[in-house]
Design a protein that fits this description.
The protein is about 55% helix and about 0% strand. By secondary structure, the chain is mainly alpha-helical. It has one domain. The radius of gyration is 11 Å and the shape is globular.
Length: about 70
């Protein structure tokens, strides 16, 4: 597993929103968050449904309407 993939999985396993996610929310840029990126092809295939669900929930909780 690459370092970037491992880092993304670690962030998704965290019980709290990562600080960087909060910062992107403050800046109105959730579209470039790790969570938004892992939900897109081709990256989504690298994550479990549980991990994708965490990403969706975090983004939804912050009001993100993107795909």
């Amino acid at each position: 597993m690459g370092e970037g993939l491992a880092a993304a999985k670690t962030l998704l396993a965290a019980t709290r929103h990562p600080e960087g996610l909060t910062r992107l929310w403050e800046e109105g840029r959730l579209d470039i968050s790790m969570g938004a990126l892992v939900l897109r092809d081709p990256w989504s295939g690298l994550f479990t449904e549980e991990e994708l669900s965490v990403a969706r929930k975090r983004l939804k909780d912050l009001g993100y309407k993107g795909s």
